[in-house]
TrEMBL record:
Residues 441-464 are annotated as: Disordered. It comes from Bradyrhizobium hipponense. The keyword Chaperone does not apply. GO terms for cellular component: cell envelope. GO terms for molecular function: cytochrome-c peroxidase activity; electron transfer activity; heme binding; metal ion binding. InterPro entries: Cyt_c-like_dom, Cyt_c-like_dom_sf, Cytochrome_c_Peroxidase/MauG, Di-haem_cyt_c_peroxidsae. Residues 1-23 form the signal peptide. Gene3D superfamilies: Cytochrome c-like domain (1.10.760.10). This is Cytochrome C.
Length: 491
């Protein structure tokens, strides 16, 4: 893929080295090894996670006396805790680091696969990591009858509804621990068991109660929790607990998730400190190009119709919390397409193999993601499944371009197909104007587009032929870059 002229450079060898051979891979070896460059970046990120965790653990010696701050501290400790994954090598933060706006921190993967490996490093998920910033401000998923649409929830497919805990971000935090392609534990009780052995146990009990870890663990608990999920079909809860202890573990797991959501809602993560916010407060001014971009955003670009910048009673969160299919092409570099054969443990991540098409919200409503679905599907919504096939949650644009350096590559879209803001803006503008690409077409991304991954329920009214000039596109990018937090601190 050729990127638009944004100043970003992606190594031509990434896809071949990180990813997959074109030929069908043999059983037990679903994906090729990660490239040396990717491994080096992974090691850098892991070291940074360790550093942040160590610095945060020091705060246990002088815990704040305010319960809200205690919950935030607990949440941060768990977000950066690698011990909560099956192989003790992957914290939640592995896919959600501060320097990128709490989304994917590995440029080499963003520029190729888009998705990230799990604790079992040969297993990749089918989607790119979303941002944690502002996620706790999403409403509980509900059906707006006047709009005729579902609104709210977390995850690309809205499957963290928030209906059970009243908090979509908390329910989102319950998905990755038992997702075999992410943190990979076989049982939610393993998260609780691992947390019971961590230095923050005493603080957790002080906040949530002494009963949190008062569980009679079986003698084989270590062996169970060291075994990657999914569990065997006949033993869906392999940590064999009494009914009372099972209920206690489930409650503690909920409280762990609520703590993580509490940290995500804190000012450290959800800060409202962008240049845009400073302009709203009268403390800064847009440049001429940024102002032009804002006018395009609210005008002929039609961005504001879904990425809402506020209105009566609204904060400018730059999303309307609905879902849409913008016609994003498939990302052929997703390792998930080659996870159609059993891996070394006999797990098949993608039963559809190379024919996989991501059904988005519709797949969730029809019962998809059973292994990492933190929220139950409201049976009354199943009738909406076909109308939501191929649709994905409208992401916030806050921190959309936050990156540690100008040459760092970020990925965009549910599958990470787009590799720059300029590219995705160009797609919104000219999706329906440019011709379809031929195989290996050198014009891809500039003079042609591949076919959509799915044409079901595709949005044809708000995107595809906006009539923007290249100057308009550049101005839109400049405006979206004003949504990066940290401006007020740096100035």
């Amino acid at each position: 893929m050729r990127l638009l002229h944004t100043g970003l450079a992606v190594s031509a060898g990434i896809g071949a080295a990180v990813f997959l051979a074109a030929a069908t891979p043999p059983a037990h070896e679903s994906v090729a090894p990660l490239s040396p460059a990717a491994l080096a970046e992974i090691a850098r990120v892991e070291a940074e996670i360790d550093r942040i965790e160590a610095d945060t653990l020091k705060r246990l010696s002088s815990v704040p006396d305010n319960q809200v701050q205690q919950i935030e501290l607990l949440g941060k400790l768990m977000l950066f805790d690698k011990e909560l994954s099956v192989n003790r090598n992957e914290a939640c933060a592995f896919c959600h680091m501060p320097e990128t706006g709490f989304t994917g921190p590995i440029s080499e993967l963003n520029g190729s696969t888009g998705s990230y490996p799990g604790s079992v490093r040969t297993r990749f998920s089918e989607r790119k990591p979303q941002t944690h910033t502002y996620a706790p401000l999403a409403p509980v998923l509900h059906y707006n009858e006047a709009q005729g649409d579902l609104v709210g929830g977390n995850f690309w497919d809205m499957r963290a509804t928030g209906r059970r805990l009243g908090n979509p971000a908390a329910e989102q935090a319950e998905g990755p621990p038992i997702n075999p392609t992410e943190m990979g534990l076989p049982d939610i009780a393993c998260s609780v068991y691992r947390a019971s052995q961590r230095p923050y146990r005493r603080l957790f009990e002080a906040v949530w109660g002494a009963q949190a870890f008062a569980i009679d663990w079986p003698v084989n608990a270590e062996d169970v929790c060291n075994t990657p999920g999914p569990p065997a079909p006949g033993d869906p809860a392999p940590m064999h607990l009494s009914p009372v202890d099972r209920g206690r573990a489930a409650t503690t797991f909920d409280q762990m998730a609520q703590s993580i959501a509490g940290y995500e809602a804190s000012h450290e993560v959800t800060a409202f400190t962008s240049k845009y916010d400073a302009v709203l407060a009268g403390k800064a001014q847009f440049t001429a190009q940024e102002q032009q971009g804002y006018e395009v955003f609210r005008g002929k670009g039609r961005c504001n119709e879904c990425h809402r910048d506020g209105g009566p009673g609204e904060e400018p969160l730059f999303t309307d919390f609905t879902a849409s299919n913008i016609g994003t092409p498939a990302n052929p570099q997703l390792p998930y397409y080659s996870e159609g054969l059993p891996d070394a443990r006999g797990y098949v991540a993608n039963k559809n193999g190379s024919s996989f098409v991501d059904g988005g919200v519709g797949a969730f409503l029809s019962g998809g993601h059973p292994l990492s679905q933190p929220s139950a599907v409201d049976a009354r919504w199943k009738a909406l499944s076909s109308d939501n096939r191929g649709r994905f949650r409208v992401p916030t644009l806050r921190n959309v371009d936050k990156r540690p350096s100008p040459d760092f590559v970020k990925a965009f879209g549910h599958n990470g197909y787009f590799k720059s803001l300029k590219q995705i803006v160009h797609f919104y503008n000219r999706r329906d104007v440019l011709p379809r690409c031929a195989p290996h077409d050198p014009r891809e991304g500039t003079g042609c587009w591949p076919a959509p991954e799915s044409t079901e329920n595709m949005n044809k009214s708000k995107t595809g032929n906006l009539g923007l000039t290249e100057q308009d596109e550049d101005a839109l990018v400049a405006f979206m870059q004003t949504l990066t937090d940290g401006y007020t601190q740096k100035n």
